[in-house]
Amino acid sequence: MKDPDSQSMSQADVDDLAAQPVRPPRLLPSSEAAVAYRLVYERVDALLRGRADVAELMVPACPAWTVRQTVAHLGGVADDIVSLNMEGKGTDQWTSAQVDRLGDNSIDELLDLWGQTIDPVTERLGLVPEGPGCQLVFDALTHEHDIRGALSEPGSRTGDLAFEVALAFMTTTYDQMARHSELPAIRLITPTIGAVQLGDPNTAKDQLTLHVSDFEYLRAFGGRRSVRQLLALPWHGDPTNLLPACSNDAVRPPNDDLVE
Predict the structure, then answer these.
(1) Out of 53, 99, 106, 226, which residue is the most buried by the measure of CB atoms under 10 Å away?
(2) How many domains does the chain have?
(3) Structural domain that includes position 18
(4) From residue 44, how far is each of 30, 34, 47, 115, 246 by CA, in Å?
(5) pTM
């Protein structure tokens, strides 16, 4: 079997993947999302604590933000959850308000503010369905790696609960979209989640197969890969018809390739 990040698959690879048992995607419990969210916070804190010199570095994956502004968003989301300020959640206006409100703080101050909300946020996750908690972890994990990219300090790219929770959100979201639209079905394989079937291959117009690393799936389907990079993934089948799911108001691929 070739490396999961290989840009092509032989017929033997495809046959091997086709023989693997597949399961439907599923969200993880909110209790696990709470643990994963704390894990991401602790990693970002360990990465940035005491590093005022990196505050104004631009974040290539979020070109409108510096490292400090990205942390302001992360802390601002947690602050809004605790304050029940959820009107317009996920919109540009909502996230911009977080950066405007907190963006003048130092990195350490922002980490302190974020840390003070961890307990109440994780307590609230125990009161909501699985989806919001998994989405919160997806957002936090995505921005952790945005920051790591700005620092050229990669790490923690697979094999932990944060990836399990984030990828559960991503796969269930695509599965639902595929079953209610004209999107292709996908047989997806990553090291952490194994083989999952996204969409109904019996009713979808196309059935694709994709075998990639956990990290590459997070970045590709999380708006961190250009259209050219998306099409260049090691697909078995033509991925052109899935581009609407990877290029819309919620997920906006960069115009230029993002290499990490």
Answers:
(1) 99
(2) 2
(3) 11-25+160-246
(4) 21, 16, 5, 11, 27
(5) 0.91
